[in-house]
Amino acid sequence: FYYDYGKNIDQTYDVIENGKISKPLRLITVAGNLYDMFNDIQAVGNNSELMLSDVTTPSVIIKKLSVTSE
Q1: Kind and range of the H or E element at 36?
Q2: Region of residue 35 (left: phi > 0; alpha: psi -120 to 50; beta: else)
Q3: Is the entire prediction scored with pTM above 0.70?
Q4: CA-to-CA distance for 35 and 56, rounded, in angstroms?
């Protein structure tokens, strides 16, 4: 399966290193293979937030994901 994707996120998020906020990330791009991403899910949270056009989703921990930022 080759379902490659890329998503630009035009928001600011904080990077947490060693348990402390270290710097902001802006203009984030998440890219990869959708099939691999679903196979690499390690945990799904019991929370949920409204995201992307009326879709509610919990937090997800993914083993490997490509993230770039300015």
Answers
A1: helix 34-39
A2: alpha
A3: no
A4: 21
